[in-house]
Write a structure and sequence with these properties.
Layout lengths: L2 H15 L1 H10 L15 H15 L3 H14 L4 H8 L5 H7 L3 H8 L7 E6 L5 E6 L5 H16 L2 E9 L5 E9 L17
Antiparallel strand pairs: 1-2, 2-4, 3-4
Helix pairs in contact: 1-2, 1-4, 2-3, 4-8
Length: about 200
């Protein structure tokens, strides 16, 4: 697993629960070091061990932790760059959803060695959207639940999300039902924020 993913998990745990909890989780996972390096790669099992240690230490299901990580990735000030990257996906929440079809390719342009899930979004006959998440590491769909929920809030859209579980091929399926597109005022987003003139 790319170090950037592991580093994001570490930052979520440290920023949310404090440095001592992160230290305990690292020890419980048998890491033997304090910090993940963002540009290194680590065995997938190490990531799974950190998640399992987190579940034990926090007394929460791994799925809930993954969803919280997804929310953190979009809403915490320490990772504002991820929110900005996702907001470039569209002017409204529906455009953002469809932009997930290209997210893997866009991420590979920036970090060719980053293993991103392949995501496919389509609209069902009943007007809901179906997101299929394909990745070798199971559970990433729960992180996407958190990302989608936080992005819906970012756009001011009211949605109902349902993780449908896994298909026979191992893909995760999420149903997205847009209840109201303009439910609330979305968070301010400035395309040119941070540009020095």
């Amino acid at each position: 697993m790319h170090g950037m993913i592991n580093r994001a998990i570490q930052c979520f745990l440290r920023d949310t629960y404090g440095p001592q909890v992160w230290h305990d989780i690292g020890q419980g996972a048998g890491l033997g070091f304090e910090n993940f390096e963002a540009m290194l790669s680590y065995p997938n099992q190490m990531t799974l061990d950190v998640l399992a240690s987190s579940a034990r230490r926090l007394d929460k299901p791994v799925e809930s932790i993954l969803e919280d990580i997804g929310t953190y990735m979009v809403s915490h000030p320490n990772v504002e760059a991820i929110r900005r990257l996702l907001r470039f996906g569209g002017e409204n929440f529906t455009e953002f959803l469809y932009s997930l079809n290209e997210l893997e390719g866009r991420a590979r342009l920036a970090l060719p060695e980053l293993e991103m899930p392949k995501m496919t979004v389509g609209q069902s006959d009943n007007g809901t959207y179906e997101l299929t998440v394909s990745i070798s590491l199971p559970g990433f769909g729960y992180a996407m639940l958190g990302v989608i929920r936080a992005m819906a809030d970012d756009y001011g859209t009211l949605v109902l999300l349902d993780h449908q579980g896994w298909t026979d091929s191992g893909d995760e399926v999420i149903i997205v039902n847009i209840l109201e597109s303009a439910f609330a005022e979305g968070r301010h987003f400035d395309l040119s924020a941070g540009v020095v003139q």
